[in-house]
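[[Local backbone shapes]]
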Amino acid sequence: MLRDVSDETLVKRALAGSDRAWTALVRRYDRRVYNYAFRMSGNAEDARDLAQEVFLGVFRNLGGFRGDGVFAAWLFRIAAFRCTDYLRRRRPMGEFDETSAPPTDDPGPQEVAAMSRTNRRILAALEALPAAQRHVVELKFFQQFTFEDIGMQLGISPNTAKTRLYGALKKLKHHEELQGEL
């Protein structure tokens, strides 16, 4: 079963022409890439488009994966570039649309309402951050990468990644404090 096969083995098989290996790689990461794109864009439709662009970019550049790092870090570097490009060319995010929330596992109405409020608050707080800080927050907390991996993905030093994260946390705390006063 391909579920137990390492990413690197799947990459080698995909490069050798295995559609099953490529499909296994996409299925392994499609949810994480979509969620990353959703938190960066704030819109389900844009997130689907971005995820598709990410996997298209991965497919086109798979031969460039040298295997000297973790495949997930390489993939999310491509995702970071695509999302950064999206953020540069898009219009400002409007109100968060509850219907664009990521799909869930059929929670009850009260859970849906609570998650919707929480999602709006998280997206509003993330939207207040500069893109550079938003990327670091996403990669550290939602994707659980190390500072070294984040640095590699964004082309910055691990210390710069740490600095951006702590600056973002300070801004997020200030944002929450302001929301509490309103």
